[in-house]
Amino acid sequence: MRKLRKHLLNLALGELVAAFSFLVVFKLYLDLGFASLLAFSFLVLQLIQGVLYWVFRSQSLGKEKSLLMRKTLIVLRRMNLLLAVLVVILLLMLAQNKRDLFFGMLIYVFSVIEYINYYWYRLSYGKSGFNIKLLIQAGLKPSSIHKLLKRK
């Protein structure tokens, strides 16, 4: 149980480091416009939700899963879907130039992939993370959050 808790906390820490790293890289090294900032914000939101989920999972090992957490995840999943639509509309409307639009859309696509990975289908397998060959062989499997939300 202790080893699993440590693994779950490592997943949370990895998501937190990724979110922080993206913010630092964006702020210090990228000179992009508002559309890219909007897409980065959506990506960081996804990563922070991942942090919260993995911390919750580590704290609830061996216990009944919290009804409040399930309801929160349901609300977040719906909110993310609405935000995904809103963000893409705003990206198209507010891009300052083609470069901003290109990078904004690239970051947005990555954010949507993260959303799908968290709330719908597990897209990473094994130690290698995302591997299209393994994904095709194994097929799409429900994500951890999706399984939790399916339980009655």
From TrEMBL:
- Top-rank lineage group of the source organism: Bacteria
Query: What keywords are assigned to this protein?
Result: Hydrolase, Membrane, Transmembrane, Transmembrane helix
Example GO molecular function = hydrolase activity
Ranges that cross the membrane = 7-26, 32-55, 75-95, 101-121
* Name the record gives this protein: Neutral ceramidase superfamily lipid hydrolase
Species per Swiss-Prot/TrEMBL record = Paenibacillus eucommiae
